[in-house]
Amino acid sequence: MFNKYRDAYVVREAAPFKIDGLAIPYPEFVARLYNLCMDLGFRKGFIMPSRAFCSDENQGLPIILLTKHFGTFPFNHGRVGGIMAVDRHGPHSHHGEDLMILQASHVGYDPDSGVYGTYNRPQMKDDCQSDSCGKLIHVIRPYLEQYLFARDRIFLRKDDKGNHLITVKNSFIDFGSQPVAQGLVLRLNNIVEEDGLGIIRPFTSASTTQTYRVSDLFRQRLEKLDYKWQSGAGQTIGSLLSADLFFFREDFHEIDDYILLERNLIEFMPDIVSAKHPSLRAAKTNVQLEFARVVESIRRSEDYQGRNLLYVAGLNIDISQKDNLPVMNYFVPWAAHVQLKDGTQDEFVHPIEQEELYAKLMEQSPENLEQSDLKANIKRILKAPRLNIRSS
What we know:
By secondary structure, the protein is an alpha+beta fold. The protein has helices at 26-39, 60-70, 89-93, 134-151, 216-224, 259-266, 269-273, 278-300, 354-363, 374-383, and strands at residues 24-25, 47-52, 75-76, 78-79, 83-84, 98-110, 115-116, 118-120, 129-131, 155-158, 164-169, 183-186, 204-205, 209-213, 235-236, 246-249, 308-319, 328-339. It has 2 domains: 24-134 and 269-373, no CATH class; 155-236, no CATH class. The chain contains 10 helices and 18 strands. Strands 1, 2, 3, 6, 7, 17 and 18 form a 7-stranded mixed beta sheet that branches. Strands 13-14-11-10-15 form a 5-stranded antiparallel beta sheet, with no helix packed on it. Helix 1 runs parallel beside helix 2 and helix 1 packs across helix 9 (354-363). The termini are far apart. The model has no long low-confidence stretch (mean pLDDT 91).
């Protein structure tokens, strides 16, 4: 007889995404990106760039710079939220001999406060601060609201007999007889004691709550954080409700193609909503997951076979105009995929990871002597004779 073993629960984690010291001003970044293409053997005048950005107006400067340095307006691979439209690989490949794709989620940043997530809209009246990226914030907001609600309705306390207790609303508990249908679910097995049979039983119960003894491991974990247990009503769990202590059971809120963004983020939503800057964490997570999905689509596609291709993914950081600062964008590289028409070298069999990609970009010149003169091109268009456009 064969022994039957329980399948292991496999956890997926997001890789570390660094920002400090890796952000490159866009005018410098795009010049270095063009020079990297040339270093890889791409040919001047035959490169078709493509961008996969959100549609916000604060992504305009990066698009203008791509046009200036690559000499043509970039193809559009992007959907709202920084999602890549992989069904556009074919059309993109038909527009140039050598192909470059730049994909980025974006997030606003205030350099004075160090806060991420908002952007000043100068086309709106008064001092209008709004979400940047609005679509990304729209996707995570329902989950963030549930998380903040739960933080204020889960209580820790120590009773007169020295029991360390947690009191939880019934709506956050996956009861064996009635699991949570929709919403935030506590991972009680990471918090409370189980009996000898592996069953979680309440210490006491009330009209809308259950109270449990916390496990020794959880108590020790809090004490390492210098947490001081309070008697009486205790205090809310607050920021101690970390990502490993809950998950979400939800039907997706989004519809149509935009569901891709929510699908990317849902597994990592506890980590996102409990982060110091949820919008930043969401943008970084989306970049990582999109890169993996897009590389797979490129490798399976026939459209890019036998062609020079550089696909770079990263994070666009948007900085609003202030009295002492113009509108600015920075790029934080994440990873790159390279394939070459004459055969890809061994060093590019695997993706170029973040620090190596940053190093490769910084090896390139921050100046592009081959960039086009957009002003001169516009003047030439304005001076061109008026054509007689006819239908027959």
